[in-house]
Amino acid sequence: MNGGGEDGKQQPHLVLAHKLFLLSHSDVDDLAKVDLRADVFAAVKSDDMAALYESLAADGVLETDAALLAEMRARIDEEIRKLDEKIADAEENLGESEVREAHLAKSLYFIRVGEKEKALEQLKVTEGKTVAVGQKMDLVFYTLQIGLFYMDFDLISKSIDKAKNLFEEGGDWERKNRLKVYEGLYCMATRNFKKAASLFLDSISTFTTYELFTYDTFIFYTVLTSVISLDRVSLKQKVVDAPEILAVIGKVPHLSEFLNSLYNCQYKSFFIAFSGLTEPIKLERYLQPHFRYYMREVRTVVYSQFLESYKSVTMEAMAAAFGVTVDFIDQELSRFIAAGKLHCKIDKVAGVLETNRPDARNAFYQATIKQGDFLLNRIQKLSRVIDL
Question: What would you report as the CA-atom Rg of the chain, rounded to the nearest whole angstrom?
Fold first, then answer.
C-alpha cells in the first residue's frame, strides 16, 4: 500500500475494494461479474490476503480452496518471521532510522495481506519510532487508506483529526493539500456534499492524490458535489469557467452537458445528461449509498432555478421546458412541495404553478423580534431574582 501518489497509480487495494463493491451490486450483469470475480481472486492470491480470502469464500463470493489458504498462511508466517529478524537486527546493530524503516516494512506487509487490526497496531509502533512530522503524516495516510478500504468512517474521522493536529506542529503544503482530498472524499461518502465541494475545489490546482482515484474521477466528484452546493454565481466562477475543469470535463461522458445545460437553463438537455449520469453515480462506491438523496437534491436545484424566474407559470410550459409530460411534473412537484423543498403551490384547475418564495428579510426581522422578546423575558426574571 503506497502512502503517496507520486507514481500516478491508484492504490491497488482501493481498486480491489471497488471491484468487491461491484461484485455485490445488483445492477452489474452476471457476465461482468465473472471477470470481476477473476480479478478479485488474482489480487487476493497475489498479495496473500488470507483473511479476506477466507471471508469471501465463506460468503460464497470465491470458491473455497483449503490448500491455497494454507499456502497463503504459511507464506505470511514466513515473511513475518523474516521481518521480525530484520527488526531485531536493526535494534541491535543499526541506528534509529533503520529501526523505524524495519517497523514500517512490517506495517506495510500487514496492510498488503489485509490484516487490518495488526496493521493499525504496527503503525502505532512505527509512529512511536518516528520523529519527523512529515513521516508521521505519511503513517496517517496509510491509516486513512485502510479506513477507505473497509469504509470504516470512525477510523477515517479520527485519522483526519489526528492529521490536522499534526499540521499544527508543522508539515508541508503538499501533504496538507492531499489531506483536503481525503477529507473531501470522507465528507462526500458521509453525505456532507457542501463541505466536500469546498475541499475539492480548493484542491483542483494542487491535486496529487492519485492513490485514491484518477484526476478525471476527481473532477467528476467535484462537479457532482458543486452542482448541489453552490449558488449560480459561485458555480460559474469556480466550476463552469475553471480552466482545470474545462480541460478534463469532456472526458467524462455526459458531465459537461450536465453542468453547462444546468447553468445555461437548457432544461431538456439537462434531463438527458442527468439520466446518462445516473448509472455511473449508482456504480460509485462512495456515492451509491446516497444515490436517491443526490437525485432528489439535483432535481430540487433545477426546479428551484426554473421557478425563480416566474411569479406564476403553466405546468404545460414547465413540462415542455423539461421535455417531460404534465403528469410527471405534477407528481414530481407535489412530492417536493409536500417535503418543503419547493416554495410554490399548484392550481390544478387552472394548470398553473404559483411561486410563494419566503421573504428572507421579513423572516430575519421576525426572528430578531422573537429573540428580543426572549431576551427581555430573561432580563425581567433575572431582575426579580436580584430584587429578592
Answer: 27
Confidence of residue 5 (pLDDT cuts 50, 70, 90): very low
- Is pLDDT of 172 > 90? no
Q: What's the rounded Cα separation, in Å, for the pair 306 and 9?
A: 42
- For 6-47, what is each residue's pLDDT tens digit? 446 899 999 999 999 999 999 999 999 999 999 999 999 999
CA pair distance 181, 193, nearest whole angstrom: 13
Which residues touch 2 (CB under 8 Å, ≥6 apart)?
A: 9, 11, 211
289 alpha carbon, distance to own chain's centre:
11
CA distance 312 to 299: 19
Give all strands of the β-sheet with 312-314 in edge-to-edge order: 312-314, 352-355, 344-347
Provide the grid cell at 12: 491497488
CA angle (313 as vertex; 311, 318 as ends), nearest 5: 135
User: How many C-beta neighbours within 10 Å does residue 273 have?
Assistant: 20
CATH class of the domain defined by 310-355: mainly alpha
The grid coordinates listed for 228 are 448541489
For residue 1, is pLDDT > 70? no
Which string of b and e fits 126-149 if b means at least 16 CB within 10 Å? bbebbeebebbbbbbbbbbbbbbb
Q: How crowded is the C-beta side of 298, counted as CA atoms within 13 Å?
A: 25
Average pLDDT, the chain: 91
Task: Provide the angle, in degrees to the nearest 10, between the axes of the packed helices 267-282 and 215-227.
Answer: 130
> Residue 157's Cα: distance from chain center in Å?
13
User: What is the rounded CA–CA span in Å between residue 265 and residue 303?
Assistant: 10
Domain 1-159 falls under CATH 1.10.10.60: no
Q: CA–CA separation, 171 vs 83, rounded Å?
A: 30
3-state DSSP of 10-68: CCHHHHHHHHHHHHCCCCCCHHHHHHHHHHHHHHHHHCCCHHHHHHHHHCCCCCCCHHH
Output the DSSP codes for 236-260: IIIIIT-HHHHTTGGGSTTHHHHHH
Domain boundaries along the sequence of the chain: 1-159, 310-355, 361-388
